[in-house]
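Encoded backbone
================
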Amino acid sequence: MKVRINLYNKKIVIDGSKVLLADQNATNGVIHVIDKVLVPLPSQNMLQYLASDGEFYKFVHSFVKVKLERKLIDGPFTLFAPTDTAFEQFPPYLLIKLVSDDKKLTDALNYHLVKGTLYTAGLTNGMVLQTVEGRSLNITMNPDKLMVNDCKITTADISVVNGVIHVIDTVLLPPVV
């Protein structure tokens, strides 16, 4: 079984699982205690996962509209993915403004992507992430919720072959849109 190993601020994370206790010698090897059960990485990339889920039609369609779907195949990336419900709650006048201007839509979509694979185990309160679009996203963490800018992360750490997806409840907008 292949696993994805990340190093965040000197913390080892395996497929999104924190290593709680490392390098425990045993008679037949070394044991690392982690906080989750490991499952095989899926064979789907971001585009395949989002397209097959049924909750992300509008988001995927937006990538296809401006011919950015390749970004959801390449990687590795961290994607903050708004659901169709998030698009439905989006102010209609802003949505019209976005979909009628390919440059603004491209910028908005790239604002949801961060280079590299960032599981929640690697995120810290106050962390600033650089987006593919070039602007920053701010992480806020407390015991009850995890936020990116003003968007709540409703489902975190969805592993795909080219990165990780975090589902958010609101569409992210770069400051200038």
